[in-house]
Amino acid sequence: MKNILIAEDDNNFGMMLTVFLEMNDFKVTLAQNGEEALQKIKHQKFDLCILDIMIPLLDGFTVAETIKIILRNSLCVLKCKSPQRRPC
Q1: Number of DSSP helices (H) and strands (E) in the chain, helices first
Q2: CA pair distance 25, 37, nearest whole angstrom
Q3: What superfamily in CATH does domain 3-79 come from?
Q4: Which residues of 66-79 are buried (b: 16+ CB within 10 A; e: fewer)?
Q5: Where exactly are the structural domains of the chain?
Q6: Residues 52-83: pLDDT tens digits?
Q7: Nearest Cα to 4, choosing from 23, 28, 22?
């Protein structure tokens, strides 16, 4: 079973993504901010890290750079939400 870390501060999106991945036989760990994500990376091995770019404490870019140093062969995916469009 592949182990995935999700760093996401939007609880609804984080839970939706977690449920979807778990339904497809992935083991998921959810972190609410960049510092929590790095703590989890130091204690567990992840096959994939999905990082929100604009998470609190440490942004996704900083977390990805640190992951690159700590875990040389893990894949990181950075994501961000686009601003909502206002109706005309």
Answers
A1: 3, 4
A2: 21
A3: Response regulator (3.40.50.2300)
A4: bbeeebeebebeee
A5: 3-79
A6: 888 888 877 788 888 777 766 566 565 666 55
A7: 28
